[in-house]
Specification:
The protein is an alpha/beta fold. The protein contains 7 helices and 10 strands. The structure holds S-adenosylmethionine (SAM). Belongs to the methyltransferase superfamily. METTL18 family.
């Protein structure tokens, strides 16, 4: 029933005639229920091997598991509505970690004491970086609970292990007491489960937010490929980002060939809404794949948010 053919076009525009046929999306099954996955629920039945990822001045560890073993699926990168690609390490998450590292080095960003949410985490390397850089709370979200149990939690454990920590170059602010949680489920329902969010209606009526409402920093990589999921993703971000200084760092491809999403199209949706604006932090054109970008989104607080289709 499902085909991953469209997703093989993610990285290349070869064989793609134009953008006109890009927005065909499959009819999806109902999403899995939202749940919290405890760190103790780490899978022991799936084979997990660990390897280093070189990120320039920084090295992190990532695991490798078999999609076939976890989901009983052939080696698909992504099966819409069933398995959303979390077992694969996508290029954007590496771009994002590099940008975060640079931003911290330049003094443009600090994770120290911050509440951080990584949406569509998969391997979770950006969230793991935030943890090493001193975040007070890091919450990881993925569509699939299996991804969290088989990969994200083991990856976090590997990167925080006593054997590895001494080799991490950028752990100056690491706080072993930081609060870590894992949540699985669809973006359309996730706001009910995330501990840091705004109360219903508070976006529209007041500048008086509870001091613990929302996340200070939201991170996400390669999450905007599906046009149909973008509105629930953006709605979730609005419900969960702290006001007025919360920031979103987003890494994604300029265009996801075959499915229609991409940074331009996401930005245009956000600009039409008028609640946030973006600045381009970096563009990656390695010549061998699609153009990738990292944007920093911030709240246009002077414009009082009105009820919109995304709120
Ligand atoms: C292409 S993967 C990217 C994984 C990881 N961020 C990376 O860059 O390696 C897309 C991620 O978004 C999540 N995702 C996609 N659609 C979703 C939805 N409708 N609700 C919740 N999560 C979703 C998936 O769980 C998956 O981890």
């Amino acid at each position: 029933m499902y085909s991953n053919a469209a997703f093989q076009l993610f990285s290349s525009n070869e064989n793609s005639n134009s953008g006109s046929s890009d927005s065909t999306e499959p009819c999806l099954p109902p999403p899995p229920p939202c749940i919290e996955v405890l760190s103790s629920e780490v899978s022991s039945s799936v084979k997990y091997t660990v390897e280093p990822v070189n990120l320039g001045e920084l090295t992190l560890l990532k695991g490798r598991v078999s999609t076939k073993e976890v989901f009983a699926l052939p080696n698909s990168d992504l099966v819409p509505g069933v398995y959303e690609g979390g077992l694969k390490l996508w290029e954007g998450s590496l771009d994002l970690v590099k940008v975060l590292h640079k931003e911290v080095q330049l003094g443009n960003l600090s994770f120290s004491g911050k509440r951080v949410l990584e949406l569509g985490c998969g391997h979770g390397l950006p969230g793991i970086f935030a943890c090493l850089a001193g975040a007070a709370a890091i919450h990881f979200q993925d569509f699939n609970a299996e991804v969290l149990r088989c990969l994200t939690i083991p990856n976090l454990n590997a990167n925080l292990s006593e054997e590895f920590l001494p080799f991490v170059t950028d752990k100056t602010n690491y706080d072993s007491g930081s609060e870590v949680h894992f949540f699985a489920g669809d973006w359309s329902q996730m706001h009910q489960f995330l501990p840091h969010r705004h109360d219903e209606g508070s976006l529209n009526c007041s500048s008086e937010q509870s001091p613990i409402a929302g996340y200070d920093i939201i991170l996400m990589a390669e999450t905007i490929y599906s046009i149909s999921a973008q509105q629930s993703l953006y709605g979730l971000i609005k419900k969960c980002l702290s006001h007025p200084h919360g920031v979103l760092y987003m890494a994604a491809k300029k265009h996801y060939f075959g499915v229609g999403g991409g940074t331009r199209q996401f930005l245009s949706m956000v600009e039409k809404d008028g609640f946030m604006a973006a600045s381009l932090v970096t563009e990656v054109t390695d010549g061998s794949s699609n153009v990738r970008e990292v944007h920093n989104y911030f709240i246009l607080y002077s414009i009082r948010p009105m009820a919109t289709s995304h709120s």
